[in-house]
């Protein structure tokens, strides 16, 4: 699952953490990437609250202030193998951007997961996509997040499909009348998206709809496979 939980003046202005958490728990994803987590000016801490949803978590805080932080979170019901990497994919003087790269130990073997939130300009996104693509160095990889990608010129899609050609194609923005496919899940050639969908009941909580997918991955004999690898069962939720 991937979801930009950005709240606007008219949608979830107080950022109702309980309601956001309820949507996530409803679908119970094995892996979920959340973007635009903002703890600035809050008495509670959304990073801590959201981490409690899953057994394992990693965060990337692209803006850190005395008043709180802003960034993204990767949650997993399965343990990480080693410590997830936070990769700086910022472009020149534009807003800082990060990617979380983690190896997850699933029941069917190890999975490389890359969660990110890309920039708003064409050149920026293209450069960031190239940086993300370099993180795909093995099979059984999933890339998910908000890619802010809606144009074909220097598109993120054209870069990422070289290594991750399987992807969702759902309209997610704006949430009340979705027109743009900003939020996506990409899978490399070892995987198949069995089913993908959005949750319209999440519309009051963000200007993006969440993307949920059931992914099936084949076993791998590579360095990130288990000693006796087994493929994920059909319909088993991987992201």
List its traits.
239 residues; 4-stranded mixed sheet; alpha+beta; 6-stranded mixed sheet; Deoxyribonuclease I, Chain A; 4 helices
Q: Would you kindly provide a written description of the structure presented here, covering whatever features stand out?
A:
With 239 residues, the protein is α+β, with helices and mostly antiparallel strands. It has one domain (2-217): Endonuclease/exonuclease/phosphatase (Deoxyribonuclease I, Chain A), CATH 3.60.10.10. It contains four helices and twelve strands. It has a six-stranded mixed β-sheet with strand order 5-6-7-8-10-9, with no helix packed on it. Strands 1-2-4-3 form a four-stranded mixed β-sheet. A two-stranded antiparallel sheet has the order 11-12.
Summarize the structure.
By secondary structure, the chain is α+β, with helices and mostly antiparallel strands. It has helices at residues 17-27, 46-51, 122-133, 156-160, and strands at residues 2-4, 31-38, 56-65, 68-76, 85-88, 98-106, 109-117, 141-146, 166-167, 183-187, 191-198, 211-217.
CATH topological fold name: Deoxyribonuclease I, Chain A
Would you identify the regions where 5 or more consecutive residues have pLDDT less than 50? 223-235
Q: Can you count the helices?
A: 4
Task: Specify the helix fraction band.
Answer: 10-25%
Tell me the β content. Answer: 25-35%
Q: How many separate domains make up the residues?
A: 1
Evaluate the radius of gyration.
Answer: 17 Å
CATH superfamily grouping? Endonuclease/exonuclease/phosphatase
Side by side, the strands of the main sheet go 5-6-7-8-10-9
Q: What structural class is derived from the secondary structure elements?
A: alpha+beta
Shape: globular
- Main sheet properties: 6 strands, mixed
What's the CATH architecture name? 4-Layer Sandwich
How many strands appear in the DSSP assignment? 12
Question: What is the CATH C level class, in words?
Answer: Alpha Beta
Q: What is the terminal-to-terminal distance? A: 5 Å
Mean pLDDT: 91
The helix/strand series, from N terminus to C terminus, equals EHEHEEEEEHEHEEEE
